[in-house]
Fold this protein.
Amino acid sequence: MTELTLYHNDMSVCSAKVRMTLAEKALEWESVHLDLRAGDAQAPEYVALNPNQVVPTLLHGGRLVPESTVICEYLDDVRPDPPLRGADPHARAQMRLWTKRLDEGAHAAAGMLSLCVAFREQHLDRDPDALRRYLAAMVDAARRERIAQALEFAMDAPGFAPALARWQAIVADMDAALARGRWLAGEACTLADIAYAPYLARLEHLGLDDMVRARPRVAEWWLRLAARPAFQEGVTRWFNPAYLALFERQRERARAHARRVLGGDR
Ligand SMILES: N[C@@H](CCC(=O)N[C@@H](CS)C(=O)NCC(=O)O)C(=O)O
């Protein structure tokens, strides 16, 4: 296999799902790690590879593949064994509906939750001029707005409760899907399950996982997913201790806040 290089970040959920896919397929790859807080994704050399200033980006045989969902399907094309897209057209459609949902707002909502609970602290610790430059250079205005809201209002940001409600609805739909099959898109683990694995880990890290624990089918699926060796290899092994310590400091306050926001219905 021609050499694979992944531009990624240790705690990036989008990077983690690609790393887990690489691990499921036992693919060798070369790591180029970017420090997002240091603005590495905005450096001209990286913007030449990914004009959206985001990780991950895959380089394969001199050709670039951006966008985590696209990268995961690409990897399933270049190394079809084991197959991760579902056994039949309907399972493949289900799989894509799940990954599409992440790309159409759920990822941004998870970003909002992460920022409001934890990442704002990292931004507030930065040199104010460096933070201003980072925000000014950002090409994604919606991301800039999420950061601005989180910096000003933390968990009282207008976008926090809708983001939490969005994830609550996702978990409810996961419960319904798992009543029909062992995995999100049927009887086999697919890119749908893999795509959500880092987000479930993030909900847990942030103390926003009551909604998962309240649904035994989802909780059991999550345990099964996290027990896969590829989860350890692609996700857990990369956890950054400084981020884990930050999550730990914020977790119980976030859990209490989420309980107030969601009321009795978690
Ligand atoms: N749609 C993109 C989203 C990628 C994305 O948002 N990546 C985040 C990390 S998970 C990032 O690079 N953020 C840049 C930053 O924080 O400066 C994908 O799926 O690859």
